[in-house]
Structures are given as C-alpha cells and as structure tokens.
Amino acid sequence: NKQGQTRFSRYYSGMPMQAEERVLMEADIARKCLKRSDVQCSIFEYGQYKLAYRRYASLFFVIGFDEEENHLSILELVQAYVEILNTYFDNVCELDIMFNIEKVHVILEEMVSNGRIVETNKHNVLAPVLEMNKASR
User: What highest taxon heads this organism's lineage (predicted)?
Assistant: First the structure.
C-alpha cells in the first residue's frame, strides 16, 4: 500500500530466505517503488533481479523476475491480475485483499504455476474461485 506495508506476497523461486530477511527486502522494495515518480519506468533493477510494478489507486503490485523473462509480459501479468481482482471483488481495495487472502492466493495460483504464467483469461481464472464460492454456500 502507499505506506509500504505488504498485504500479500508469494515467492516461487530464488534463494531461501528467513522471514525477517523477506520483511526487510519487501520494505526496501516498497520504499523504492514509493520514491519513483509517475514518469519513471515501471521496471527497474533490484540486486540480481528486475522488478516490475504498477500502482492502482492505493495499491502497488510488484513482481520480481530474472533476465530470462519478457519484461512486457510481466507488466501484462500485473495488469491481468488486477483486472481479475477488480472483476471478482467489484473494484478491489486493500481490505478485500486483507480479508480474502485465500481467494487472492487462489486467483494468483490459477494464473501462475511454479513461477510460470499459465493462464490470463479472466473467465478461466475465475471459474475455480466461483466454484469454491458455490460449494461453500
């Protein structure tokens, strides 16, 4: 969020890190994203990785990736993820993420498997989540 607090994170690969290290790294990344102006590029280097981020209202969505990934496809993944969250939550906000973290995880898992993009079609991604909703009624 705009205060630099991480509300949701998911790691697929990389060096194993202790929880404290992750918290410090995420805080550092948040500070760097918050400092960037609207006219600066949404992709920048962070250590051995690249970061792509987008800001939507008060939320920041950040994805770390290596040089092998297509930079523009990562930005498109962020866009698709936010659009799907907006569809599911009817204009996603920070509280939706905080109080529905399991749904946020399921939606991401439908889109990304083992760190690879597998699905971006809104209907295909939301189908399992909507089925879960029906089953829980």
Answer: Eukaryota
The dihedral formed by the CA atoms of 118, 121, 123 and 128, expressed in degrees to the nearest 10: 10
Give bridge partners of residue 113 from the DSSP assignment.
116
H or E segment at 86? helix 71-89
For range 95-117, the mean pLDDT:
94
Q: Can you tell me the distance from the alpha carbon of 134 to that of 136, in angstroms, rounded to the nearest whole number?
A: 6
pLDDT tens-digit series, residues 6-51:
999 988 876 678 889 999 999 999 999 999 998 999 999 999 889 9
Query: Are the C-beta atoms of 1 and 56 separated by less than 8 Å?
Result: no
Q: How far is CA 15 from CA 48, 49, 60, 101, in A?
A: 11, 12, 24, 25
- Quickly tell me which residue has 């799907």 as its tokens: 84
Could you give the C-alpha distances from 44 to 11, 15, 90, 115, in angstroms and in order? 19, 20, 31, 19
Give the Cα separation of 75 and 72 in Å (integer): 5
pTM for the model: 0.88
Let me know how long the chain is. 137
